[in-house]
Structure formats: C-alpha cells, structure tokens
Amino acid sequence: MFPDPADPERRIGFEIDLAHALAAELSRALGREIEARFAQGQWDKLPDLLKTGRIDLVLNGYEWTPERAQDMAATLPYYVYELQLLARADAQGADAGWAWLDAPERKAVGVLGGSAAERYLAEHHPDVELVSYDGNTNSMGDVVKGRLDATLQDLPIALFFRDDFPELEFVGPPVEPGRYVIFVRREERALCAALDRAILALRERGELRAIYERYGLWTRAQEDPRYLSLPAVETGPEPGGLGAVRAFLARNVPTLVESAGMTVLLAMLSFPLAIALGILVALGRLYGPRPVSAALAVYVEVLRGTPLMLQLFVIFYVLPSAGIRLDAFAAAILGLAINYSAYEAEIYRAGIVAVPVGQMEAALSLGMSKALALRRVVLPQAVRIVLPAVTNDFIALFKDTSVCSVITVVELTKRYNIAAMTRPAEVLPLAALAATLYLAMSYPLSILSSRLERRLRP
Amino acid sequence: MIRVRELRKRHGAQEVLRGITLDVHPGDVAAIIGPSGGGKSTFLRCLNGLERFDSGTVEIHGTTLRAGLERSLEARLQREIRSRVGMVFQQFHLFPHRSVLENVTEAPIHVARRPPEEAHTRALELLERVGLSAKAHSRPGVLSGGEQQRVAIARALAMDPEVILFDEPTSALDPRMTGEVLSVLSDLARDGLTLVVVTHAMAFARLAANRVHVFHEGRVVESGPPEQVFTEPRSAATRAFLELTG
User: Fold this and answer.
1) A349, CA 20 to 30 Å: which among A19, A45, A356, A445?
2) Could you give the CA distance from residue B28 to residue B8 in angstroms, rounded to a whole number?
3) Is A366 in contact with B107 (Cβ distance < 8 A)?
4) Which three-class secondary structure state does DSSP give residue B49?
C-alpha cells in the first residue's frame, strides 16, 4: 500500500481494499459493524506494535515464517508472493537470468531488511553482497543510480512500481513462492479463526481475484494449492534453561559484537573530522571577515536545527543526483562529521572566548602573528576548557551512529533490528544485549569525561 | 628612538588621547604618571599597536604607524615594531599551559626562529638574572605575583628588545613583591635599556627614571627630569596629583 498520489492523506493499495473487504465479511458473519482502520507504523516494527495492543492485526506483506508463527498467530495465506530480481535494463550479462548473480564479479543486491528476499539470497547466492534497506523504493532507486547491481523484491511490489522505474528490468523468472498472512496476537484465537473464514469466503466468491486483478497482481501461483494452507510448525523440543541461553548467545553475540565494531569505527572516524571542521568554523566565526562569519553562523544554525537523519538522507539519496556519489560508509562518516561539526564549532567558540584577552595581547606583543598566537597560545588553552564538553559530545555521537542504519550501514542498532525481525520472540533479550554493548562502550568514555573534568577544574 | 606626534584617540564620545607629542631617547627611563583615566595605559598600548588610534603618528626606529593603514600593511608594521619592543602587563599574562622556561623560550623559538638549545641557554641566563632559575620547570600558576612578573620581564627580555614598555607593572602586587620587581627594573635601567614605565610607584619614578611625563585628561601636562617635576611642578594638575599621592 502507498499514499494516493492525488491525496497523500489517503492510502490506496490492494491490502487496503482487502482490509475493507475482510471487514465487510466479518460484519456479515458476526452480525455487527466492523470497520478496518489504517494505522501508521514502521514496517519492521509492526509485530512489536501488535504486541503492545496499539494495533490489532498486521496486514502488510508479512510473509509466514516458522519464527513468526511461534511468536504470533497467523491466518491462512491471503496472497502467494514470489521473489523477482530486478536490474538496470543496460546491465551487462543480465540476460543470463539468475546465473548472472553468480558471475565472477561480486554483485551488490538491495533487499528489505529481515525479508524473505534477504534469507533467499543468503541461502542460494551466498557470494552476493547484501545491502539491507528499510523500504522498497530506495533500493530500486539505488539500482537506477548504480549504487546497487540489482534488487530482489516481492513480485507484487516489483509489478506495482514497474512504471516508476522504467530503467529497471525483470531478471529471470520469479522464484520462491511464499505466503502473505495476517498476524494477530497469539491469544486472539477467535479473531484468527474468523479471519480465516473470511479469507476463504472471499476467495470462494472470487473477490480476492477481483482485487488482485484490479492492481495487476493476479498470478498463477494464487491457485497453487500447496501455498493456500499453512505448513506445520515443527515444534521440536526447544532446548530449555541454560541450553537455550547458551544457544541464544552463540547465535547473537558474534554478529552483534561485529556490528559494534562498525559503530566504533563510525564514531572514531567521524569525530576527529567533526572537531577539525568545528575548529575551522569557530575560527571563521570569530576572526573571519563579516561575510564569512555570517555564512558560518547560518551553517551552524542549519545543521543544528535539522535532524541528523534528514542530513544523512540528503547526502546519501539526494547528492547523487548532483553528481556526488558516496558509498554508504563514506556518506555516514561525512554526515556525522558535518552534523557534529556545528556543535563542536559552538563549543570551541565558547572555549576560545573564555581564554582571557590578555593571553592574545601578550602573544602579539612578543611579535607573534595572530595565526601563530591562536595556534600556540589561545587554542591550547581553549582545548583544556572545552575538553569535558567535547568528550560528552563524543558519547552522544557514539549513540547517534545508530541513525546511519537509515542509509544501509549495518551497525549495532541495525543488526539488532535484523535479528529481532528474524526472531520476533527474542526481541527483549536482543534489546538487552544491544543495550549492554552500547553501555559497555560508552561507560568508559563517561568515566574518562568526568575524570578530565575533575582534573581540569582550576 | 620613539617619536610620537599629535596622537589622538576616541572611545565613542570620550576623547582618551587629545594630541600627545612625546619623545623617548635611547637609554631613557621614561616614567609616565598621572591620575587614573588620564590615558597613560592607552598611550602605552598605542606604542606597540595593541590599540588603534584616530590620528597622529607613532614612529619607532624608523617604522611609522599611522591611522587608516591598509590592514595587511598595518599587521606587518605592527609585527616589525613588536619584535623590537617588549611589553610587560599589570596582570603578567604568562602562558599558564607552559612552564616558566617555555614561557621565556616561546617567542625566541617560534617568532625569532632561534635554535631551541640556544634559546634554552639564554632563557636560563635571563631567569638567573631575575632570580628565578630554580623555578624554570614550574608552572606559572604556582608562582607568587612578584615571581610571575619577574618571569614576564625575562620573557620580554628574551627577544632582545630595544625598548620595553611596562603597563603598571607593580599595581597588582603587595609592597614586598613590588620591591622585588622594581629592583629588577632599576637593574635594567642601570644596564642602559630603554624603558617606558606607566606607574603609580612614585619612589621608582623619582629614583630610577630620568624623564617623567605627567598625563592628565588625555594630554601631557608636564615633562621633565624627576627632580624638577617632583620638587618644582609647573602645572596645577601635577601639583594636585602629587598632593593626592603624598
């Protein structure tokens, strides 16, 4: 589903039509008025929203998986999707179909994080570089821009956006049929059964087909009986107690720790840049000619007054249309450095102003140029003054690296999201584990900061 | 050595310097005295370009500063003058992040580009001269006010200036520390250095200076050898000032 281009407040899409049809069917069966209401939520967080009770069902291209089936109650499939590979029409060798993916040069393929497409590629094409996105259109756009070689999408999405991305072409036949189901809270067995009956009734009467045809989504797979029911969930004896904890840790600690390394790398590379840039901006504001200092004041206000996430979006998705193409890692470093340079500039400006004027005068009186006096006399003292504030900012930046997940950088928060998507039942222990890792990294910085503060107090 | 002609400066509506004309000759020890607010410190700061002025000229050893110079030329002339003219401040302004020795070697190494070894040897000699060689590796923060001011004098001397300007060098000090600093000043005067000293220490002006200039409301109201200015003041303003200071 997607906003109606004619009225962005209104949503249209086959699942909206389906929701209304289901509500009508439920009303008829139960003899009371039932209405489908749309609720906005981040796609990969819909199961969490469901559990909090803010929504009652998830009907949004969620495929049935054994892990989800253990965590939530699933209805019968309402749609059988397949996965479609898309590449630029001019891509070399793409006419070879799926074999193209396994050609010697490594291919970068965009997928929706935690989706069946991601799992399929990891399993069948392990040499492909997976790039994980929060939505569908950004990865299609990145294929057009050349940042990705291809993207693997659910067929209905590939069909729906066909006209928006004329540069893209279907590669090979669709693969790996799967079931879109509706998820409800595990304890809502009655609701689940009522929805099952409604889905069967709609299919019986041809209403499902009518809806799908209206959107050009009807495929032969919709009639394949193998996919119209749910597979049995193997409820093998789960290792209990200590064994379960050990299995959980073995599954998650190595990947989370590895992504924590990316978090550290992002912080370590962007912060020195932010400081260097910040000092230049502070000096420009204090000592530059009027136009320069005015322009820098605007720089600071714009960067402080707009969200980091938006700045990252602009650098990653908008700059390429101006010919500046950065990979996700470089864009993340640049975005963090520029955003934090505004804060560092203000801190350093305050620090420089806090150094007594007499220091500059004494340095000038010894024959120093203003630049030399700044470098040898004023800045070293300003650094001492601002050190605690700067350490504090480093901790803040450290946590802000999590925002980089929106531009496909897989750091700690993103890895947590992916793991939680795959095994929704483990959300709580996963969140605890990720939080522990963040704390383990930032707490030493905190201690360092307060120690510096104590030592530098006059 | 120093020739100042018709120097004028305003701070907004207030005219701080109203046409100062004054000469300092090589080897002179010039004391500038007078009531507060008379323009003494402002005048001194105009001599090495720490303050801009509105009209008139300051000529030091053939380099002339005037009002309205183009910025980069002005900066060059100022640096030329400052490398030959030392300055000592009321509040010392030592660099707190460097040791006493580094304070003294800072300009010789980084401005005059002398070899560090040579600068160190010379700095230790100068600290010896002001009686502080034992504190060479201390931070300025642990020194007494008098000691800090003596370090500041050594720091100025390290650039081998032809003139040193002193801006009320003892005003922030208690009487005992004032004595320490004034004895260093007298010592420099005996060695033939040219000094311009804005001071409230009348005893110093009387004993160590060979010229005394009395500033009052932005003008030089009286100039002369100390024995004449202190015993037979010609101007009413001088008489009133001397009566007040006893």
Assistant:
1) A445
2) 24
3) yes
4) coil
